[in-house]
Write a structure and sequence with these properties.
- With 329 residues, the chain is of the alpha/beta class.
- The chain has 11 helices and 14 strands.
- Strands 1, 2, 3, 4, 6, 7, 8, 9 and 10 form a 9-stranded mixed sheet that branches. A 3-stranded mixed sheet has the order 12-13-14, covered by helices on one side.
- The protein is globular and about 60 Å long.
C-alpha cells in the first residue's frame, strides 16, 4: 500500500474575518487558538495518521506556511492564481504515487475531539482503499445556514445540498439524515484523478498541463489561468457513483465568520459583557452602551463594529474594499 498523505489546502483569504484576516496573513495563520494557528493545528492533528504533508497554497503567503511546515516531511505546490478546490486537489494527486491515499483538509477549520476525529479518518481510509471517494459529514447540532449539507443513509450519499435558509436548515435537522459538509475528503490519488478525468476532462487536462510545466513547485501562471475554477463538490462529488460519507462526531467549525469565532472565544473564557458584547484585537478598554451581541474588532489600521447576526455580511465589505483597490485587504 502507498503512503497516507495529508493534503492541506491553503488558498483562501478569510474575507469574512476582515480586518483580522488579510491577504498577507489570512485567518489560518493567526495564532488565536491557545497561541497556535489553525494551520499549525491542522498539521498536528493529522500527524498521527499521515506519513507526509503536501501543501497546495497561494503564492501570496507561502512563507507563512513554510514556517509552520519546517518540522514535518512536506512538499509545497504554489498556486500562481487560485483555481478552486478541484484543481488544487488535482495538483496534489499528480505529485504523489497512484496508490497513495490523500486526506484532504482545509487549513482553516477548528476541530476538537481528536480521538473522534482520528476514528472517522481511519474509517475513511478503509473506504478509500476500496476505491471510494470519501467525504466526512458532521453530525449537526443546530440549524445552520452557513454550511452545505449532505443527505445520507448510513455511509451512502443521497444528495448534496447548498447552504439553506433557516427554515430549510430546521427541516434538515428534524429529519435526522442530514450532515454538515465538512470539506474534508479521503481517496486514492488515482481514484480522484480517474473521476476528475471522467467528469471534467477539460479541467483534468488543464490542471495536468499546468502541473507538468511547474518549476520548483510553482505552477505556471499562464497555464493556470486556463483551468476552470470549480469546487471539488461541483466537479466530482455531486456526480460520481463512488462516493461514501463517514458520519462524524468530532466538534467542527469552519471558523469562517465572526459568529463562529465569537462562540469559540466566549467558550474559552474571552471577556463578554452582560449584553453579550465582545472586543477582539488591540488591548484598548472598550465599553458598549445600548448595544447587545456585538463584536468590536480593532486592528492597527481598521475597526469593525457589527452585530454578530451580520457575520456573513463582512465578506461584502471585503469585496467592496477589493473593488476600491484598498490597501486594507
Amino acid at each position: 500500500m502507498g503512503k497516507i498523505i495529508n493534503v492541506i489546502l491553503s488558498g483562501g483569504v478569510g474575507s469574512r474575518l476582515w480586518p483580522l484576516s488579510r491577504k498577507s496573513k489570512p485567518k489560518q495563520y493567526l495564532p488565536m487558538f491557545n497561541n497556535k494557528s489553525l494551520f499549525g493545528l491542522t498539521i498536528e492533528r493529522n500527524q498521527r495518521v499521515c506519513d507526509d504533508v503536501v501543501l497546495v497554497g497561494s503564492v501570496k503567503n507561502i512563507d507563512l506556511a513554510k514556517e509552520e511546515l519546517k518540522h514535518v516531511n512536506h512538499e509545497i505546490i504554489v498556486e500562481s492564481v487560485p483555481r478552486n478546490t478541484a484543481a488544487a486537489i488535482a495538483f496534489a494527486a499528480l505529485s504523489v504515487d497512484p496508490e497513495d491515499i490523500l486526506i484532504v483538509t482545509p487549513s482553516d477549520h477548528l476541530i476538537e475531539g481528536e480521538e473522534q476525529y482520528l476514528q472517522a479518518i481511519k474509517r475513511g481510509v478503509e473506504f478509500a482503499k476500496e476505491g471510494n471517494l470519501v467525504t466526512f459529514g458532521i453530525n449537526p447540532i443546530r440549524p445552520e445556514t452557513g454550511y452545505g449539507y449532505i443527505e445520507s443513509i448510513g455511509n451512502d450519499v443521497v444528495s448534496f445540498r447548498e447552504k439553506p435558509n433557516f427554515e430549510t436548515a430546521k427541516d434538515f435537522l428534524k429529519s435526522g439524515n442530514f450532515l454538515w459538509n465538512s470539506g474534508i475528503f479521503c481517496f486514492k490519488s488515482s481514484a480522484y484523478l480517474s473521476e476528475l478525468e471522467r467528469f471534467d476532462p477539460k479541467l483534468f487536462l488543464a490542471a495536468k498541463a499546468a502541473f507538468e510545466s511547474s518549476a520548483s513547485g510553482i505552477l505556471d501562471e499562464e497555464l493556470s489561468v486556463k483551468i476552470p475554477s470549480k469546487s471539488v463538490d461541483y466537479a466530482i462529488m455531486e456526480r460520481s457513483d463512488k462516493i461514501k460519507v463517514v458520519p462524524s462526531f468530532f466538534q467542527w467549525s469552519d471558523m469562517g465568520s465572526f459568529d463562529s469565532l465569537y462562540d469559540y472565544l466566549v467558550d474559552k473564557g474571552h471577556p463578554k459583557d452582560e449584553n453579550g458584547n465582545i472586543a477582539i484585537g488591540e488591548s484598548k478598554r472598550t465599553i458598549f452602551l445600548g448595544l447587545s451581541d456585538c463584536v468590536f474588532v480593532n486592528t492597527d489600521d481598521a475597526v469593525l463594529i457589527m452585530n454578530k447576526s451580520y457575520a456573513q455580511e463582512v465578506k461584502n465589505v471585503y469585496e467592496q474594499l477589493e473593488k476600491e483597490g484598498s490597501i486594507l485587504i
